[in-house]
C-alpha cells in the first residue's frame, strides 16, 4: 500500500506529465516542479522506470474510470466519442497517445503492454454494448474492432487538428 506522501507525489507528478508529457520526463525538473527531490522520488518509486510505470498505471486508472462511466447498450460509441472529444480531456488523451505509441516502439521497460491492455479494455466496453447473441461471435468481434479503429482514428485526427466539428460530423 503506498504511503500518503507517495500518493501525493504521484498525483502531483501525474498533473505535471499531463501538461509536459511523459516520454522525455527528467527527474530533476519533475521533482522541482512538484516540490520534491530526485532522491525522494527514487526512494519511493525505485527508479525512473518505476515512476513511469506508476504514472502509466495512474493514467490507466483514469481510462478505466471513464470506461466504467460510459455504460453499455445502444449509443455507447456516441457516448465514448462525446467524452473523447471534450476539450477538457485533451491532456489525458495526449498522454494516453504518447504512452500507446511508446509501448509499440519500446515494447520493453515501463511502457510494456500499455497499448495491448488499452485495446483489450476498450474492446470489452464495446462488447458489453452489443446484444448478447452477438457478443461472442466472430461478427461481434469484427464490429467491435471496427468501432475501436474508427474511434482511435478519429481521436488521432482530433488531437492532430483540433477540428472537433469536422471529426464529430464524420463520426455522426
UniProtKB/TrEMBL annotation:
SUPFAM superfamilies from the UniProt entry: Homeodomain-like (SSF46689)
HTH tetR-type domain sequence ranges: 3-63
Recorded GO MF terms: DNA binding
Gene3D superfamilies for this protein: Tetracycline Repressor, domain 2
Position of the signal peptide: none
Keywords: DNA-binding
DNA-binding region: 26-45
Name this protein carries in UniProt: TetR family transcriptional regulator
Organism: Lentzea aerocolonigenes (Lechevalieria aerocolonigenes)
Amino acid at each position: 500500500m503506498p504511503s500518503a506522501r507517495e500518493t501525493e507525489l504521484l498525483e502531483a507528478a501525474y498533473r505535471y506529465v499531463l501538461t509536459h508529457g511523459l516520454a522525455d520526463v527528467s527527474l530533476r525538473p519533475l521533482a522541482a516542479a512538484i516540490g520534491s527531490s530526485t532522491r525522494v522520488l527514487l526512494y519511493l518509486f525505485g527508479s525512473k522506470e518505476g515512476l513511469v510505470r506508476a504514472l502509466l498505471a495512474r493514467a490507466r486508472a483514469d481510462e478505466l474510470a471513464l470506461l466504467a462511466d460510459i455504460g453499455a447498450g445502444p449509443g455507447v460509441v456516441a457516448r465514448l466519442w462525446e467524452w473523447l472529444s471534450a476539450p477538457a480531456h485533451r491532456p489525458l488523451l495526449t498522454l494516453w497517445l504518447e504512452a500507446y505509441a511508446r509501448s509499440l516502439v519500446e515494447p520493453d521497460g515501463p511502457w510494456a503492454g500499455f497499448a495491448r491492455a488499452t485495446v483489450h479494455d476498450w474492446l470489452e466496453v464495446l462488447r458489453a454494448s452489443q446484444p448478447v447473441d452477438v457478443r461472442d461471435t466472430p461478427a461481434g468481434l469484427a464490429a467491435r474492432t471496427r468501432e475501436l479503429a474508427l474511434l482511435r482514428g478519429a481521436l488521432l485526427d482530433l488531437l492532430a487538428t483540433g477540428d472537433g466539428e469536422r471529426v464529430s460530423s464524420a463520426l455522426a
